[in-house]
Amino acid sequence: MLAWKLGFCFESIYVSKNQILGFIYLDPKHYPWLLSCVYGPPYFHEKKRFWSEFMGIGNKVGGPRLILGDVNFVLSNSERVGSMGKDQFLPFILQLIKGNTLIDMPIKGDNLTWDNHKEGHHHIKSVLDKALVNEDWLHIFPKAVIQSLQTSHVCKKIGATRLALSKWNREQFDKLDTYIGRLQLQLRNIQKMPTGSRSWASEMEADFISIPGYEEIRQALFTMGSFKASGLDVVRKDADFNFIMDNLVSKLHGWKFKSLSKAGHATLIKSVGLSLPVYTMQMIKLFKKLATKIYGMVRDFWGGLGFQRTLEMNQAFLAKWGWALLNKDNSLCCKVLSVKYLKGRPFLKCSYKNLDSWFWKNVVKAIEILKKGACKLTSDGKDTDIWNEPWVIHGQDFHPHPKNG
What we know:
Blueprint: E1 9-15, E2 19-25, E3 33-39, H1 44-61, E4 65-70, E5 80-81, H2 90-99, E6 102-104, E7 107-108, E8 114-115, E9 125-126, E10 129-134, H3 135-140, E11 146-147, H4 152-192, H5 199-209, H6 214-222, H7 242-256, H8 262-273, H9 278-281, H10 288-302, H11 310-326, H12 332-342, H13 358-365, H14 367-371
Parallel strand pairs: 3-4, 7-11
Antiparallel strand pairs: 1-2, 2-3, 4-10, 5-9, 6-10, 8-9
């Protein structure tokens, strides 16, 4: 991972599991230099191939260069405390560094950054974190210093993070444990209850299939209003769409308790809030009162700014089905509508009957929207009714109008 402060411009040019290469545009701004952050392979059989390819990339780029990171090699026996035997990689890397005219920058502080954490004569510490530069880079930054930092500050940050996570866990999920415990207690009490005779199911079934008597019918009729019809007509049609409002209310109320930016609110409204009624609006024409409520709730939640108007979206969805029929779309739905209702007639001249399906009625109601912009493109004119179909692009309502006289 490579991180930098604001105002520090880094352009990545090559990334692999062992290196990150990129140009630095900072000091001076118009003279970039190459930064190579590296983690050298620890295994001997991988080192020669990696460092040969690594140096080759830098030579192709050219210019000032800084190599920084855990290189996993030493440049002399003095950079190792303890014995690991003869280092077979040492002659190769010394020759490679010399051939590329690189300079090993001295490190201030404790440079023995690697420790095998063993005791006695097996204890080994080495200088594996290095900074290698060429003369061009050193000419730009002659006073550059490499400082070795202590790792204790990392431990402090990890400890502070642990405390912060513990506090967050208590605040967010402490009540959850109590709620789960209460539900588990209720479940145990239910499981301890004796098993009933299950006769209630039979009684309910008998009530459903029994023929109502005179008193039962009389009581049901007299509880209704004077101008109400018996049967399903007493149920308001707009009640069938209450689930849309319930879902939208639950979503918006949930978002109000979350710390979101303005952009976050807008994204949630567009991706979730306005998408909740989309499936219904594609098939059914919503009541104007319901569409106004949906739009008003989203607008008030945002703070006065509106998004797509629900009523216009609903009309556009239904008009889209009409447009598909005009273009003789090959979908299954359009095929069914064409065979059942069109029967060879032009769609713009269609009407609906009372016994037609509610979906077909809603599509036909959108014809007036299509008439405002639908114009037929003619070729040889054989399949065009020139007086009754819209085909004149620049004409009034796309229909031809004969001159008087």
